[in-house]
Amino acid sequence: MKTSPSMMNEPFTASSAEPGGWIDPGIPRSTIIETLLQRHSVGPRWLTDPGPSERELATAIACALRAPDHGLLRPWRAVLIGRSQRAQLGDLFVRIALDQGRDAEDAAAEVERAQRGPVLLAWIARIQADIDDVPMHEQWMSAGGALTLFLTALHAMGYGAKTLSGRKCRHPLLQQAFCGPQEHLVAFVTVGTPTRASRPRGHDTIENFLGPWQPGAPPGVHTPN
Ligand SMILES: Cc1cc2nc3c(=O)[nH]c(=O)nc-3n(C[C@H](O)[C@H](O)[C@H](O)COP(=O)(O)O)c2cc1C
């Protein structure tokens, strides 16, 4: 791998403030780097048929399995919600919306929400509290890394996707419907073919996310824009 200026502890140049200006021109812009730089979410209302085939989904899951995973715990799994199961899911959404105090008309809109998008999955994390050497936050990291690889693989295949949770994912009715012991329903992932062109949002300042260690100094990085 080629060493970038930041890795050699040199300051970024002025061009680092420009969108994309921080990318080391010495790094070959392979297709995979372009793909990673372009990944972005596409909302369910902008997704249509065709969705990924089972084989394509399996490939995306195989990519997700490349996420770093301390202890090889595989602290996640995905659940495919079939077309014929959307109505059942919609019923649950409505019951939860009513339980959470929304009025009947507002709650009824949840029926349509469960139908959106050609492919719908639930992302489940299985976080174990009693694993030596692998604290829970490391398992969450791994589950999130896997989700990101899954989304990125689908993006690389030309599909759009979006991860959405909302308060309902933490409701006992949905937790019971999807989860076993030590499991959490993290979110739903909708996947399909984008109906409009879109791009990644925002331009992050890389210096906020990568900087030299300054022991004892107040944090100089990780400051959200
Ligand atoms: C686990 C998880 C749950 C999320 N839940 C929601 C949500 O309920 N509502 C929402 O607007 N965005 C949610 N997001 C964020 C979107 O999926 C998306 O990442 C965000 O809009 C930024 O867009 P981008 O992926 O194109 O950068 C969630 C993301 C993750 C990882």
TrEMBL record:
<dbReference type="Pfam" id="PF00881">
    <property type="entry name" value="Nitroreductase"/>
</dbReference>
<dbReference type="InterPro" id="IPR029479">
    <property type="entry name" value="Nitroreductase"/>
</dbReference>
<keyword id="KW-0521">NADP</keyword>
<feature type="binding site" description="in other chain">
    <location>
        <begin position="39"/>
        <end position="41"/>
    </location>
    <ligand>
        <name>FMN</name>
    </ligand>
</feature>
<feature type="region of interest" description="Disordered">
    <location>
        <begin position="1"/>
        <end position="23"/>
    </location>
</feature>
<protein>
    <recommendedName>
        <fullName>Putative NAD(P)H nitroreductase</fullName>
        <ecNumber>1.-.-.-</ecNumber>
    </recommendedName>
</protein>
<keyword id="KW-0285">Flavoprotein</keyword>
<feature type="domain" description="Nitroreductase">
    <location>
        <begin position="37"/>
        <end position="192"/>
    </location>
</feature>
<comment type="similarity">
    <text>Belongs to the nitroreductase family.</text>
</comment>
<dbReference type="InterPro" id="IPR000415">
    <property type="entry name" value="Nitroreductase-like"/>
</dbReference>
<dbReference type="GO" id="GO:0016491">
    <property type="term" value="F:oxidoreductase activity"/>
</dbReference>
<keyword id="KW-0288">FMN</keyword>
<feature type="binding site">
    <location>
        <position position="70"/>
    </location>
    <ligand>
        <name>FMN</name>
    </ligand>
</feature>
<keyword id="KW-0560">Oxidoreductase</keyword>
<keyword id="KW-0520">NAD</keyword>
<dbReference type="InterPro" id="IPR026021">
    <property type="entry name" value="YdjA-like"/>
</dbReference>
<dbReference type="InterPro" id="IPR052530">
    <property type="entry name" value="NAD(P)H_nitroreductase"/>
</dbReference>
<feature type="binding site">
    <location>
        <position position="66"/>
    </location>
    <ligand>
        <name>FMN</name>
    </ligand>
</feature>
<feature type="compositionally biased region" description="Polar residues">
    <location>
        <begin position="1"/>
        <end position="16"/>
    </location>
</feature>
